[in-house]
Amino acid sequence: MRTYYWLLLAGLLAGTASCCSPPGEGSRARTRDFGMEVQAHRVPNGHYLLTIYLTNRGTHRLSIDANCLPWRPYGMTLVLVAEDAYSSILERSHVIADSTPNAMATIEPGQTMRGEVDLSEIYPELNAAVRKEEVSVFWSYGLIPALPAPNRRVGGWLCLPRAGAGKDRK
Predict the structure, then answer these.
(1) CA geometry: angle at 68 spanning 96 and 129, to 5°?
(2) Looking at residues 80-91, what average pLDDT do you find?
(3) CA-CA distance, 2 to 150, in Å (whole number)?
(4) CA torsion sign, 63 to 65 to 68 to 71?
(5) Are 71 and 116 in contact (CB under 8 A)?
(6) DSSP state at residue 67
(7) What is d(CA 162, CA 127) in angstroms, rounded to the nearest whole number?
(8) How is the chain split into domains, by residue range?
(9) pTM (predicted TM-score)
(10) Exposed, middle or buried by CB within 10 Å (0-12, 13-18, 19+), for 139?
(11) Which residues of 79-90 are buried (b: 16+ CB within 10 A; e: fewer)?
(12) What topology does CATH give the domain 2-155?
């Protein structure tokens, strides 16, 4: 199982470019037809959220199964790695994903949809890990349009800085 994650991480790193961004900046990836931007931020309750922007860059309407949007449970691949000596992979909790039959989402050309993922709910160890070290968030999303078309996959990574980084510690 861990081998699978390392292969996934190697594939993501080989196919994308990003850097450890300051808070509020994110990771972007795009194909000819659509673009995706992922930003991470901490909210007042202490949770870490990913804000995801999905943009139709093409000239035709995109119709997508709403259950397959990236902010839905299991809508995108996420792997979180604590930047400790062991590159520890954080354990993901399993949620029950209710699907809505025949639910479609439409994005017109030039329009953007937005959604959020609460990383702290999905990864119970996240808040404790980020108090000790940076955490890398690797993401991958395959847009599956309603009409038969090639699967369009994008991916990237971003960094959650160590909580309190840059502040004096005693």
Answers:
(1) 60
(2) 96
(3) 29
(4) positive
(5) yes
(6) G
(7) 10
(8) 2-155
(9) 0.78
(10) buried
(11) bbbbbeeeeebb
(12) Immunoglobulin-like (2.60.40)
